[in-house]
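FW: tagging you since you asked about this chain on Friday. Here's the raw sequence from the shared folder, copied in full. Didn't touch anything.
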Amino acid sequence: MYDALQIGPFTIQYFLLIAVATFLLTYFILDSFLKDSEVKKLLKKHYWTIVFILFLSYKFGIVIFRPELLRSSSWIFMTGGEKGIYLGIFLAFSFLLWQVLRKNASIKAVIYMYGLVIVCFTILFQIIKIFVLSIL
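HL: got it, structure written out here
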């Protein structure tokens, strides 16, 4: 799963390509199957902000978890790994709760949306991963 695609001077891990494709598919699938409700409004309004929070925590979680690596010259190429993803999930959920409390929306809708996104993303990620790895 840690193989990479080489395009000129750029090296892109398959994990990142699969994750981007899965985020896009998750958004479009949930957008098309959810009825107009508070959950769909939350999804449309905050989905890409959550993805951005997850990306930042994945990429720069190394600064929090291993700050001694900042002295090296290659720290920008490192990732926060699994801990960074968990930190991103926590930060994204905190962001959604903050938005709900600020706008007096339903916490039940946030938890429902968050659960839908996680389940849909996980299933799609595994399907796409199996498909891509079977081709390569």
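FW: Strands lie at 4-7, 10-13.
HL: agreed, and The chain has one domain: 4-135.
FW: great, closing this out.
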